[in-house]
Amino acid sequence: MFKDKVQTVRQYLSSQILGQLDLIDGLMLALLSDGHILVEGPPGIAKTRAIKELSKCIEGKFHRIQFTPDLLPADVTGTDVYRPQDGSFVFQPGPLFHHLLLADEINRAPAKVQSALLEAMAEKQITIGRKTYTLPELFLVMATQNPLEQEGTYPLPEAQLDRFMLHIKIDYPDAKDELSILQLNHYEIQHRKEEKEHPVLTQKELFEARASVLETKVSEELQKYIVNIVNATRNPLAVNGDLARWISCGVSPRATIALWRCACARAWLSDRDYVIPDDIQVCAYPVMRHRIIISMEAEADGIKPDDVIEKILSLVVVS
Q: What is d(CA 274, CA 219) in angstroms, rounded to the nearest whole number?
């Protein structure tokens, strides 16, 4: 039953977020794989709308943080507040203590604020002073960044990028989808007083779905395939001379685990209890594109991380 609920949520998102299937699939993969997602794309293409619509379908609390250069770490994590009545300090939780969190334009905040997310995203806890506070078991961060305007931004360090399970790149919809968006917006304006019906997935059902995803079968050959893809980024010279020139630093073991979990989730969403090579190949792009560090020579030649991944997938085969 919970599988039908998950599919219903996916279908609902597809009806509300038009022309952005990669974003919808990325959100569902992150949700089922207990990971976080970084979304990059120009403004006005439904990044915020996507997580808001998802939050309506998930039992839990949602919060949005607009990242700005003057934001402080305590604005994100929370802080101890002094009570003059009895001279004590009481912890006031910050936005991190929500189930779904939108970190809007994360690259506009300075490094101290960005690093405040590290412990939360990796360990699901934060430390204030001498005390450690546990975050909810359901905790998903969707961060966005605008690639068009780089003035006044702070690039995310590799250590933080590695905490994101997926990096989804999206672009403007085509003319057909944009017409549908226009019609949907017109309909919503006319019926704004009517409350839209949407499915609701309880946390229990979501955790059952995650457990079911982990039961998806991955053959030993495909496990080796995942490892070989990852190792190709670390030892590129053993695979191809071009890769050796393009890659400055390979991906971490987090990428191996993320690729396995996302491939399982994609198979599960496709109503299969086993992973096929296509699951791994499709998931390789969002899992590895933000983890591969390309060389200056590659940048000079106009080579992007996706080009490197495409090359690796063409050279590394299932044994």
A: 8
